[in-house]
């Protein structure tokens, strides 16, 4: 036992250490214990008897929690505050903060005047928006001095207002992007845009119920396209949407709209082509520009505009290429006569039919002894005119 | 059995006796009982202020300890583990009392003070003063809270170190030291009220 800090009177400690207690017969008690152990060895022992006794804490008793909290508590907030002030400000207020650090390091309480000066110096730093004041020299925080960006209000030693580097980079980036967009726009305009714009302007002037500038939204069919559901016609001829969009752009320009639309917008504003009924898919062998997904279609830069032929009447009536349904229908109409050529035979014959721009068959390629008969039969097929020079489709003629 | 056990008393430590008792050696546990029953009884007397209850608690302490030998993890000394059971049983007995009584007619401490156990050559006046002081100490100890009284008995009467008392009560040594300091301060104040004034106090706080 350690030396007690509180001395008791006389020989109280000696008496405590050897306190006289009337003792029972311990030998008899030990035998009684042994007898109990033989009768019921141990019995049930609850865990609470083996745990630490639950004794109420005395008032003012130190606890582990409070001592830990006391150890973790910061010794001085003034030092940290002054250190931050030194880091943030490089003007004369740093001297004041250093003085405060020195005072804290010297373990002396800073006087009221010094604390008030530091508080006054750091007060504007709490908010990034300085309060309006007639006397700008009252603003003593370094943060305010840098962000105020008003030269007359700065002290002579203050640095000129700085622009954040991120702002400069952003402005340069935006300028470069604008320049690149302008260059692309001019480049595309020199090659194909004038033709499209001229056609569009012409159409916008002729067509009744032309798209108004304020109703630049797509037609119902095009709305479907915007929703990701396109008709087979649109899939077969995505390029047809581009000149039509250019028409909207030209109409906007003619109506004195607020500037030409961007190519992306023009691509999206594609009206539905004429004859937009759903048709079956056919094997189109000579399709130089296969259908593209709706997502890739609107970009004019990625998908160059189609080569347009000189207009033969209304541009909106001539699709770029015939639809698969139209080709299938035309071939079906002459299939029976072609099959008759194979009477008595067992092998099918594959024929390639090439349509001209006017919709008539230019040539038919068919092999075998019945090739001439099949060619003659298929030459009677006819489809609606289209813009391309020619269009080929293959079909298999089976014996009847 | 007792004779043979006493022959082995200085040779076997408490841990060895516990290990042997776990393996079914009843004699080894008997040795453990005889080695610690007096201290356990004195501890129970100071906590319960009753001889009969202290005897019951002492018996219960060893019976329960025997039943829980398998749960002794060996991280502490066996006697501190037995002390903990004794303190728990004593506190349970105190809490089961309907009223807190100041003194008991069979308080072994008072009986011990009445027995003339002065050493040879001691003056009768000194013996009488010691008895008066002893009675005042008993009253002062009994006025302490259970927390302070238990800690004071373990450290100042039974002679446990702060670390050992901390093991028994399950608290840090610093808490034990604070409690001992607080108990002694109150005890000195009580003794002063009973005429054992500051003139007799040696040292300072």
Averaging pLDDT over every residue of chain B, what do you get?
Answer: 83
Percent of sequence in beta strands of chain B: under 5%
Rg of chain B, Cα atoms, Å: 19 Å
Pair with the biggest interface: A-B, 53 and 83 residues
What is the number of strand segments of chain B? 0
Question: Mean pLDDT score of chain A, rounded?
Answer: 61
| Main beta sheet of chain B | none
Structural class of chain B: mainly alpha
Helix content of chain A: 40-55%
Following the backbone from N to C, one meets helices and strands of chain B in this order, namely HHHHHHHHHH
Low-confidence parts of chain A, pLDDT < 50 over ≥5 residues?
Answer: 66-76, 124-162, 191-282, 285-314
Q: What is the beta-strand fraction of chain A?
A: 5-15%
Q: Would you identify the CATH architecture of the largest domain in chain B?
A: Orthogonal Bundle
Number of strands of chain A: 3
Helices and strands of chain A, in order, run as HHHHHHHHHHHHHHEEHE
* Helix proportion range of chain B: 55-70%
Model description:
The complex is a heterodimer of chains A (400) and B (205). Chain A has 400 residues and is mostly helical. Chain A has helices at 12-17, 26-39, 64-72, 77-88, 93-105, 112-122, 142-148, 165-191, 193-206, 220-226, 232-236, 241-254, 263-268, 324-340, 371-378, and strands at residues 349-356, 361-366, 390-397. Chain A contains 15 helices and 3 strands. In chain A, a hairpin with a 4-residue loop joins strand 1 and strand 2. The radius of gyration of chain A is 48 Å and the shape is elongated. Chain B has helices spanning 2-8, 14-22, 26-48, 51-67, 78-96, 108-114, 124-143, 146-157, 162-169, 173-193. In chain B, helix 4 crosses helix 5 and helix 9 (162-169) crosses helix 10 (173-193). Chain B is globular. Chain B starts with a helix and ends in a 12-residue tail after the last helix. The model of chain B is unreliable at 1-6 and 200-205 (pLDDT under 50). Classes of the chains: A mainly alpha (400), B mainly alpha (205). Chains A and B meet through helix 1 and helix 2 of A and helix 3, helix 4, helix 5, helix 6 and helix 7 of B.
């Amino acid at each position: 036992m350690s030396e007690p800090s509180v001395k008791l009177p006389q020989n109280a400690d000696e008496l405590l250490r050897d306190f006289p207690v009337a003792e029972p017969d311990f030998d008899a008690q030990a035998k009684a214990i042994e007898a109990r152990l033989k009768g019921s060895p141990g019995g049930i022992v609850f865990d609470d008897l083996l745990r630490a006794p639950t004794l109420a804490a005395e008032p003012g008793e130190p606890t582990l929690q409070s001592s830990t909290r006391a150890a973790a508590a910061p010794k001085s907030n003034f030092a940290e505050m002054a250190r931050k002030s030194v880091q943030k400000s490089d003007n004369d207020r740093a001297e004041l903060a250093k003085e405060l650090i020195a005072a804290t390091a010297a373990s002396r309480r800073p006087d009221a005047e010094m604390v008030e000066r530091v508080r006054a110096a750091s007060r504007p730093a709490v908010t990034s928006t300085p309060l309006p004041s007639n006397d700008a020299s009252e603003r003593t925080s370094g943060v305010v001095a840098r962000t105020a960006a008003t030269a007359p209000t700065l002290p002579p030693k203050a640095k000129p207002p700085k622009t954040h580097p991120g702002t400069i980079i952003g402005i340069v980036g935006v300028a470069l992007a604008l320049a690149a967009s302008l260059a692309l726009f001019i480049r595309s305009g020199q090659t194909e845009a004038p033709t499209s714009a001229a056609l569009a302007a012409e159409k916008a002037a002729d067509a009744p119920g032309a798209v108004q500038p304020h109703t630049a939204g797509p037609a119902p069919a095009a709305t479907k396209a915007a929703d990701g559901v396109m008709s087979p016609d649109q899939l077969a001829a995505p390029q047809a949407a581009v000149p039509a969009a250019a028409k909207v752009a030209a109409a906007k320009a003619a109506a004195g709209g607020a500037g030409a639309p961007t190519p992306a917008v023009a691509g999206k504003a594609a009206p539905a082509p004429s004859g937009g009924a759903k048709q079956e898919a056919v094997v189109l062998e000579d399709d130089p520009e296969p259908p593209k997904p709706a997502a890739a279609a609107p970009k004019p830069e990625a998908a160059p505009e189609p080569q347009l032929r000189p207009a033969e009447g209304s541009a909106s009536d001539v699709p770029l290429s015939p639809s698969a349904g139209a080709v299938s229908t035309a071939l079906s109409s002459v299939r029976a006569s072609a099959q008759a050529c194979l009477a008595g035979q067992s092998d099918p014959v594959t024929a390639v039919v090439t349509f001209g721009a006017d919709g008539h068959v230019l040539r038919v390629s068919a092999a075998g002894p019945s090739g001439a008969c099949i060619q003659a039969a298929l030459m009677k097929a006819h489809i609606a005119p289209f813009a391309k020079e020619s269009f080929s489709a293959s079909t298999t003629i089976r014996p009847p | 059995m007792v004779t043979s056990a006493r022959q082995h008393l200085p040779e076997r430590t408490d841990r060895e006796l516990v290990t042997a008792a776990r393996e079914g050696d009843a004699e080894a546990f008997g040795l453990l009982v005889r080695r610690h029953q007096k201290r356990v009884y004195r501890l129970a007397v100071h906590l319960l202020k009753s001889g009969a209850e202290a005897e019951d608690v002492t018996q219960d302490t060893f019976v329960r300890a025997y039943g829980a030998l398998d749960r002794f993890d060996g991280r502490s000394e066996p006697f501190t583990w037995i002390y903990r059971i004794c303190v728990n049983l004593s506190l349970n007995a105190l809490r089961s009392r309907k009223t807190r009584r100041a003194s008991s007619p069979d308080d072994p401490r008072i009986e011990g003070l009445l027995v003339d156990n002065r050493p040879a050559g001691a003056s009768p006046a000194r013996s009488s003063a010691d008895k008066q002081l002893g009675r005042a100490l008993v009253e002062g100890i009994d006025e302490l809270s259970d927390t302070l009284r238990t800690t004071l008995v373990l450290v100042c009467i039974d002679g446990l170190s702060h670390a050992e008392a901390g093991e028994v009560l399950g608290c840090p040594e610093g808490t034990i030291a604070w409690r001992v300091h607080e108990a002694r301060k109150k005890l000195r104040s009580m003794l002063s009220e009973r005429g054992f004034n500051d003139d007799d106090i040696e040292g300072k706080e």
